[in-house]
Every structure is written in C-alpha cells, then in structure tokens.
Amino acid sequence: MSVFRKLKEKVTPPKANVSVTLKKPLFVLGDTVEGVVQVESQEEFDCTEIRCELECVERVRRIRRVYNEALKREVDQQVWESAVLFSAKPQLIGAMHMPEGFIQSFQFKIPIPLGTPPSFKSLDRVVAWSLKGVVAVDGRPDANSRTIEIQVAQPSQVPKAPSATVSCKYCGTVFPESESKCPNCGAPRTV
Q: How many domains is the chain partitioned into structurally?
C-alpha cells in the first residue's frame, strides 16, 4: 500500500488551496501589480518556495507553406506562434514545512515594465498578461492557483494644453480659436 501512496504522491500536487487576490482589476504599463497569495493546506508537506508568476505572452497567427505528401504539393497551413515577452517569478517565501490546516497570506508587488505591450486581442494577434500563485514542491507537481488574465492598458497620453478660446460677440458662446464660425449661431468669428 505504501508503494502506491508514494507513486501517487509523485504524480499529484499536494492538497492545498492556493488563491490570488488583486488590489485592483486594471493595470497600466509602469504600474505595480499588488495583491495577496493565500495558501490553505489540507495535508502536511514541505515546500521549496511560494512564489507569484506574472507573464506576458504574445500569440501570432502565421501562414506557413508546408509540403503535403497526399497532395504531392505545398499547401498553406495556419499556425499560432507564441513568445514570452515578459516573465517575473518573485519568491514570496523560501523553503518551509506546511502542517495540515496551515493558512497564511503572502503579499506581493510586481512592477510592469513600460517597454512591454498592453493587453490586445485581434483575429491574428493576442497579447495576454497572466498571473498565478505557486507553492513549489520537490519531487511532485506544484500546487497552483487558477491562472488569472489581467488587463494591462497603455498609460494615458500627456494631456494637451487647453486651446485658446474666443467668445461669439452675438450669442456669447465660447468656442476654440481654431473654429472660423460660432458652432451655436453660425456667425463668423471676429478678430
């Protein structure tokens, strides 16, 4: 019986609930992703570390020419290529023993670099930011939280200086100096 138990431990992650809670739902390039990883253990085990993983992955649909043996000619084939554009795996705590019934929360802060792309979805390109909590264990699969897709937006542009305005001498409406006539009454702008 113990042989089967040891074999089962090698292929199953430890019984632990791992969850990630974020302080806000939307982030901007240059922001810091802040939140909490909570771990609840239902069995006793030793972990090597508890960490948070933030990744930005770009997937692009490409058309490739491949040789088809059945048709004896080259045909177009759609494939999705992916590349990891950013990855951070900060350690929240090192090796520790987790007794059954262990419950603890670990705070994390991960900066999002300005040079990375924001979240984006189109027919042939996807840029996705994902976040998950991990309890790493030697000799068996890690216990993971569910992966959360977070939304990362472009920072707002520097606001333009307010444009000069003029008021209509007939109706008093204030309008931009770049307009040639009053948007309210249609009178030509006077200098």
A: 1
CB 42 within 8 A of CB 48: no
Residue 173 lies in a domain: no
Nearest CA among 154, 151, 155, 156 for reference residue 24: 151
Domain annotation covers residue 185: no
The CATH number assigned to the domain holding 123 equals: 2.60.40.640
Q: Which residues contact 50 (CB under 8 A, 6 or more apart)?
A: 37, 39, 91, 92, 93, 96, 106, 133, 134, 135, 136
Written as six digits, the tokens of 174 are 């204030």
State pTM to two decimals: 0.71
Which residue range(s) make up the domain with 81? 8-155
In a domain, 108, yes or no: yes
pLDDT along the chain (191 residues), means of 10: 68 90 92 95 93 96 90 90 96 94 95 92 93 93 94 75 78 84 85 70
